[in-house]
Amino acid sequence: MKKITLMICLLLTAAGVNAQQEKGIIGYTNWLDNWTEFKPHKAEARDANQILAGNITENTKLLKRNVYILQGNVYVTNNAVLTIEPGTVIIGDAETKGTLVITKGAQIMAQGQETDPIVFTSNRSLKKAGDWGGLVILGNAPINRFGSVGSYNMDLDPALTVYGGDNAAGNSGILKFVRIEFAGKKVKGAETFNGLTVAGVGNKTILENIMVSYSGGDSFAFYGGDVNASQLVSYKSINDDFKFTQGIQCRLYNSLAVRSSYLSSNKDGSRCIEVKAYEKKSETDFTKKSTLVSATNITMLNDSENIKADIEKGLIKEAVYVADNTSLELKRSVVSGFNPAVLLDSQTEINGANLKKIKFEEMFFNQCSGNIFTENKSDNSDLENWYGNNIFANVYSHGENKETFVDIFNARRPDFRLQIGKITASSGR
């Protein structure tokens, strides 16, 4: 009888913990343990003994026993499959802007393990954001540009960087337990690379447990396609943590964005989540699906120890930006330490149709200087009244980071889950 009673108590305790942590990233244990690295500057790397350069035109396997250096733009072409063993290290060459491109029709099978992740990093002794290019995956899923195709130009070969098509169920491979560090190099006369660029990729592609840290551009950039992604981590990106555009249909789950007042850009256009319909309106086919993002259990925070002072200095902007003609459904998520939490494009009319497309439900807004605003409009009472309705079950709080999260200042193994009991905080705004 005692054993049965004890088991019931344990089950009820576990259920209670899960219920109380249902906002923001979730898990009975800290799923960031073992495979992530929050001090990549100090991580020691072996010298490269293999070179990756030019085109990879046939099935190729990268082995853990080697260390590979990406020299220049490396393309996986000809429908080839690039397989990477768990624990393999690939170094992006800073001098030649090493970049790995998985072209349309090709695949990457990078399936690391929780205790043996695959690592893409910089070859500089003093590593910094933007040391090398990044990882680019191109597929044949729908985008909303005319002709249903786009090209990820930068300084890449335009013939090898075409993406888009009609296969929403396309499969560009697997990225699982992968880290991408110090990518996002600025290209002269062009823009900045991203840590991971996913363009026209279909929903059979597996994107799970991926950490992008110290990216000089966006951490994760999604251009069209139909994508499922979970347990993504963006850590101290210069630009956006998660960018969505060109008609992507994305379902993002249980993911984390950590920004820094002094490292992340405080300029317009740099946010945790940016949702846009297009990059260039003149190239957009509005008869096709517009961007739709459904994000659940996302934690977005600025890790400052003095949020109020950093806001007053102008170092902190909004966490989420929603452009016109797009849809965002953000549920059971945490937004902590921003100015404001959410900003809607000035072109977005506040009416019933748009409010049905922009949803914030069961949210935890904490320590934000304002919650949901329309761009260039100081009076947000209409939005506050709408999203403050009890039917949406949004919670508002003003707790310090160290009180709000389990252990975010642990240098080696931070825990960004919400403190037990915090979701019962006051709903006063």
From TrEMBL:
- Determine the domain of life of the protein's source: Bacteria
The signal peptide here is 1-19
Q: Which UniProt keywords apply?
A: Signal
The record's annotation in PANTHER family points to:
LIPL48, SECRETED PROTEIN
Task: Write down what this protein is called.
Answer: T9SS C-terminal target domain-containing protein
- UniProt lineage: Bacteria, Pseudomonadati, Bacteroidota, Flavobacteriia, Flavobacteriales
